[in-house]
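Attaching the record inline, Q. Sequence:
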Amino acid sequence: MNDYLIRGRLAEVDPAVAELIQHEQARQFGKLMMIPSSSSAPRAVLEAVGSVFHNLYAEGYPHPDMRALSEAELLDYDAQLTYFRRYADRRYYKGADYVNILEALAQRRTAEAFCPPGMALGDLFVNVQPLSGAPANTAIYEALVNEGDVVMGLDLMHGGHLTHGSPVNRSGRHHKIVSYRVNEKTERIDYDEIMALAMEHKPKMIIAGYTSYPLAPDFRKFRAIADACGAFLMADISHTAGLAAAGLYPNPIGIADVTSFTTHKSLIGPRAAVIVSTRADLADRIDRAVFPGEQGGPHINAIAGIAVAMKLAQQPVFKRLQQQIVANAKALADGFAANGVRVAHGGTDTHMVLIDTKSCAGTKDNPLMGDAAARILDVAGIVANRNTLPGDKSPLRPSGVRFGTPWVTQRGLVEADMGEIAEVAARILKSARPFTPEQLAHNQFPGQGRF
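Structure, as predicted:
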């Protein structure tokens, strides 16, 4: 039978892309991957993401009654398909027979992984359709606040995310942003200052959660602040969701009105995001803000990956991984401090460590800055990222480097290895020497290194 299916393995169909993949695989294997927003998705997750669920369009949602079903009931195909064919569903496309089961399964497993003690699974309303963290957060804005409303979030320069009100993001362009900051002397969040700002500006929504603040927040204090000024409380635990699922980081679900997180960082899942609320009066608003408000058809293959990741997140080995991730981060921070490198915020409660590269090399007028430091480390095989620290004046000239321990922990590294990494990284950065454009033009460089 003749058909028009394009067959052949990738190496046969497109050897250029196949070779690029091989190079990237070798890079990931040959270097220490220490960007805290990265992890290595398990093979089972990658299989789900690369499955035939990729081929489907399924705008809409499963039937709401599926929220109450157990996993065994969801996987009773005869019952589910009979119900689907008799009553149809909320999808805009037909052919979602198994998609409804899959998405409901991902929702249930997410609720199981994150349901706080004392709450029932049915108290959690879960949306697994956001394509990533930024679309998830944008949908929450759409659901809870109006254009021009006041929103409070941590300043980008102090560890907040672009979607928490940065002026270069639409969150900052479409809303009046009042940013709270880290106290530059203590390098801690000041809840009294946040309360004062909230009472002065009366925000419609307060965001608790960070992208480069390594200490755990007190969500109950944020709840009290939000209640005092009449604001919604949004928690963004994109970086720390894996730690929260393992009980190693405060779980905001049931405290915040709505919680968002990505699934590809410490959760070691697919590139996707989740929104959870325990407020039935907000659930439909959030669903409609995701679709059709923010995006069209969901990536069903990513939802398959979420279902797998949430099953893995409930296994004992996952908790052991998260415990070692945190232990390794603390050992890394201690290692840097022991080697004379200033650790920002005084340490870490999580999977990330930030160092002040100005403490490593350079002069007062020409210190080693974060971008140059990150590039030097990358050449040496340690992959981290530049990052602003409290006190920096521009995101284009950050003075820090941010390290994360999820990926290296997945590969089996432990505390002693973190000490060795810190020692090597400190030695490399301290060997750097500044140079001038004139020296560059004449190929004259002082010392053993340069930046």
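Residues 243 and 322 are 6 Å apart (CA to CA). The chain has a mean pLDDT of 94.

More tomorrow.
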